[in-house]
Amino acid sequence: MRQVRRTKHPDVTQSVPHGEIKTLILDMDGTLLDLHFDDQVWNYALPRELAARQRSALPEAKAHVVTTLNTARGTLAWYCMDHWSREFGLSLHDIEDELAHLIGVRDGTLEFLNFGHASRSRCVLATNAHPASLQRKLVRTGLAPYFDQIVSAHQFGVPKEDPRFWTEFTAQAQIEPSTAVLVDDNPAVLATAREFGIRHVFGVRYPSSSGSLKHYPAFASVNALDELLPWLRTRGV
Ligand SMILES: [Mg+2]
To answer: Which of 70, 153, 158, 167 has the fewest beta carbons under 10 Å from its own?
Structure first.
């Protein structure tokens, strides 16, 4: 598994006026945690299990998984383990449990969370992950105590790609968008959040330690969360 690369000079140069930062909003999969786990669940274990059950060839099962998943891309169903368990006729929860040893915290995450916890800013985890998957990952990593609030989009009935999520989430969590930072590895989520008014948004260049570079043409991005600390310190966080 490749080490997450770091740079001394992260691309956090987007021009933003100085202003108070009160809330740090962090995505979970691919941002706080290594997306390697999710890749293994959805791209390898699920097709393997389907191929075994249906006695079909693995490439055929993989193609079936991709085609089926694409029918719900961008909707909350895409993130719903119960939905896919029904669709594929097996338990995604069991597959996640079996691979739980692969759930891992990304380099730089703990440094960032320790900083955030000690700061005056609120730290909020906002994920599209299914509540059962969220719980499994929090238990496995012990990250829950670092957060003032933990939110799954499932409680709002719409994913973070949908503007309605940001309206309801910020109202419920009492977040002032113009004083908030969001880090997320999903460009569609970053676009929606920025359009809504979240002041500072950043992508993550290597969401999976076993995956390739992810480009964010429209956004600043970092390799690891702790690269944001010098920038946050200059803003008095
Ligand atoms: Mg993510």
So the answer is: 70
Domain-wise residue ranges, the chain: 23-34+104-234, 37-101
Structure tokens at 2: 């490749």
Strand order in the sheet with 200-204: 149-152, 122-127, 23-26, 180-183, 200-204, 220-222
**Ion ligand 1 neighbours, Cβ < 5 Å:** 27, 29-30, 185
Distance 30 CA to ligand 1 centre (A): 5
Distance 197 CA to ligand 1 centre (A): 20
What is the Cα–Cα distance from 143 to 92, expressed in whole angstroms?
Answer: 23
| pLDDT, tens only, 101-156 | 999 999 999 999 999 999 999 999 999 999 999 999 999 999 999 999 999 999 99
Fold of 23-34+104-234: Rossmann fold (3.40.50)
Q: What is the pLDDT of residues 144-184, one digit of tens each?
A: 999 999 999 999 999 999 999 999 999 999 999 999 999 99
